[in-house]
Write a structure and sequence with these properties.
alpha+beta
Length: about 160
């Protein structure tokens, strides 16, 4: 994934911000908990997460394939997370708590998912980056990869940020 958003890649988030954002995405958004979405990296330019395959996520029982809705919901969550990381990086002058409160205004406007290959595997890696962060709308690009690193699905999203 290329780096289009002009955000200072050297920014290191405070532990309070990282812990808070993980709590919001992994615990407070209960649906992400059902998906088993676990954040693995939270950087200003890119966020990554993992979903471990489990019986509850099967979409095609004959092949043990992950449900397309899980892919879509996971990539949507990752797009939102990438936007929050970019907003967090843009407003480093605010406290971590102030930046976390900005999450309340975030919402998905548009989401496109392309399913490229069947989602079969023990776990999946999800990546997202912000292409453009405007004052009202953010555009993102996301990837859903198999345990072997193969690209299984891609996504593009638009999010309201104010």
């Amino acid at each position: 994934m290329s780096k289009h958003l002009e955000v200072d890649a050297e920014i290191e988030f405070e532990e309070e911000f990282v812990v808070g954002l993980k709590k919001v995405f992994e615990e407070m958004i209960v649906f992400n908990q059902i998906l088993g979405l676990k954040i693995t990296s939270l950087k200003p330019r890119q966020v990554t997460a993992r979903i471990d395959m489990k019986r509850d996520l099967i979409g095609h029982f004959s092949y043990n394939r992950i449900h397309g809705g899980v892919i879509s919901a996971g990539l949507d969550a990752m797009g939102g997370l990438a936007v929050m990381a970019a907003i967090g990086a843009r407003h480093m002058d605010e406290t971590p708590v102030q930046r976390l409160h900005r999450f309340g205004k975030l919402g998905t406007i548009d989401l496109r998912i392309d399913y490229l290959r069947p989602g079969i595997g023990e776990y999946f890696e999800l990546r997202a980056e912000v292409m453009r962060l405007g004052s009202r709308v953010a555009s993102t690009r996301m990837e859903f990869l198999g345990a072997d690193g193969k690209l299984l699905s891609t996504g593009a999203g638009a999010y309201i940020v104010s």
